[in-house]
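Students often ask why we bother encoding 3D structure as a string. The short answer is that it lets us treat folding as translation between two languages. Here is a chain of 244 residues written in the first language.
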Amino acid sequence: MSDLNNEINNIVKNTQLKHIAIIMDGNRRWAKSKNLPSAMGHKKGVDSLRNIVETCKKSGIKYLTFYAFSTENWNRAKEEVNFLMELLSATIKSEIPLFIKNDIKLTFIGNRGNLKPELLKILEYAERETERCSSLNLQIAFNYGARLEITDAVKKIAKAVYENKLNIENITEETISNNLYTKNIPDPDLLIRTGGEKRISNFLLWQCAYSEIYVTDVFWPDFNDNELLKALENFNTRQRRYGK
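And here it is in the second language, the structure alphabet:
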């Protein structure tokens, strides 16, 4: 194992880091900076995702969540959206054997109501094929928006109260957490955003209440193990007080 991997492993172990969430930003700006079409940036972004998943798996991270496609991203140019749908489908189908081999469980979080049947079948197939894997739990936030997630949770809880299945006085923070897309997944310890923007863009609003946030100017296609180590080294300096 390389010195770099050893350093990453040691920080993960010493900080008891369990869950990293990542906003993968900068694919299009990376492509533009190199006079390439945006599609090339998205393809290179997939390579970065694959590498970070592999590194986190080796390092003992149990949960990894990527923000892949937001509910607002449908407003992009039709050609780009279509390309992203095709890229997602092709990537999932090609990576399933590797996920199974490496004991990686794949879950998609987000709204599935308006997805095309062909894409929905691929997502569900990937989840079924990897549901018994457990070394790394990989969540892909696709067609995801945190406000919509919380709204859906409120509707579920309201329905339970209306049907007399839940007493309104018994609603707790745990009740809300258990009705989110991320139920049974611990909140992120660390939220990483690439591309330099200092906002969380409607991502895991409830879950990131006490997450440590790390922002880097590096575009996502250039985010590699060295950049991950920088984020973890920064995390290692934080004192997590949870409001105390």
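Translate back mentally: The CA atoms of residues 1 and 58 lie 10 Å apart. Keep this in mind for the problem set.
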